[in-house]
């Protein structure tokens, strides 16, 4: 086959595009509704994505081989209200169906949060699969974790591959054997690093430190005031130990999932005897973005953008097998 063309829907800042272009696929159309993301995307790719996908005539979208889209996940996320198809953002999946029905691409590559697998007693995912099958696609899905693809972040996402040709085989995806740790992606010390004073945190005893199956190593917590109101008897102290933004993880392990809701970074890390948050640049590294990627906007906006993006090496590994198996 000649040039493999794709469209980049719900494009964000272009993580999926980078992954697919690294496999020599050509982007012929992109769509994103967020103004800040549009500016970042345009700065990096030299083209401005089309806006609201619901207002785009599917007949005017260029022909393509692959429809790629990390469609909005808030409607299915365990961190949200989980309204699913009752949420406007959830219905954006049907925009994908609308375009696929008209343009008939050979492959759909879709990404979403892990919780989509369980949402509404698994009926939501079943409904999506049923609609794709009605359009003539073989549909396969898998939960993949970014930490298996060379980035030190425990980030699980559901990947759906729908193909006209034959079912996609996820078992052939090449996972990285190297166990990458947070310390492997850290920058040299500079002014953007914000350290905590020793009086501001508590480290737990070495005998109680364990490496979790996710690769996370919990080593302490910020010494914040104990929350009394609403706490059950004898559990008051847990509010500062278990509240996510207070947690401290060792740089010898992996980092928790970056979130778009924490615009100042998420957790603190313990590295070389000091505690600090990751810098913005290090957060982009946790997603596998190249050093050449141009950030845009305030730091808070950039944290939000990277938290909403995708782990590039993971998507690239899937794209590699799409190319191998389906083209």
Describe this structure in words.
The chain has 327 residues and is α/β, with parallel strands linked by helices. It has 2 domains: 5-176 and 303-326, Vaccinia Virus protein VP39 (Rossmann fold, 3-Layer(aba) Sandwich); 182-289, DNA Methylase, subunit A, domain 2 (DNA Methylase, Chain A, domain 2, Alpha-Beta Complex). The chain contains 8 helices and 11 strands. It has helices at residues 15-21, 35-45, 93-103, 123-134, 238-242, 280-286, 299-307, 312-326, and strands at 5-9, 26-30, 66-69, 107-113, 138-145, 156-163, 201-203, 218-222, 247-250, 268-271, 274-277. It has a 6-stranded mixed β-sheet. Strand 1 (5-9), helix 1 and strand 2 (26-30) form a beta-alpha-beta unit. The chain starts with a strand and ends with a helix. 41% of the residues are buried. Mean pLDDT is 88; it is low at 75-85.
What is the beta-strand fraction?
15-25%
CATH structural fold name of the largest domain: Rossmann fold
Give the tally of β-strands: 11
Largest sheet: 6 strands, mixed
Q: Write down the secondary-structure element order.
A: EHEHEHEHEEEEHEEEHHH
Any idea of the CATH class of the largest domain?
Answer: Alpha Beta
Task: State the fourth-level CATH superfamily of the largest domain.
Answer: Vaccinia Virus protein VP39
- Average of the residue pLDDT scores: 88
Compute the gyration radius: what is it? Answer: 21 Å
Helical run tally: 8
Q: Would you identify the CATH architecture of the largest domain?
A: 3-Layer(aba) Sandwich
Strand order of the largest sheet: 2-1-3-4-6-5
Structural class: alpha/beta
Q: Separation of termini? A: 7 Å
Low-confidence stretches: 75-85
Outline, from the CA principal axes? globular
Q: What is the helix fraction of residues, given as a range?
A: 10-25%
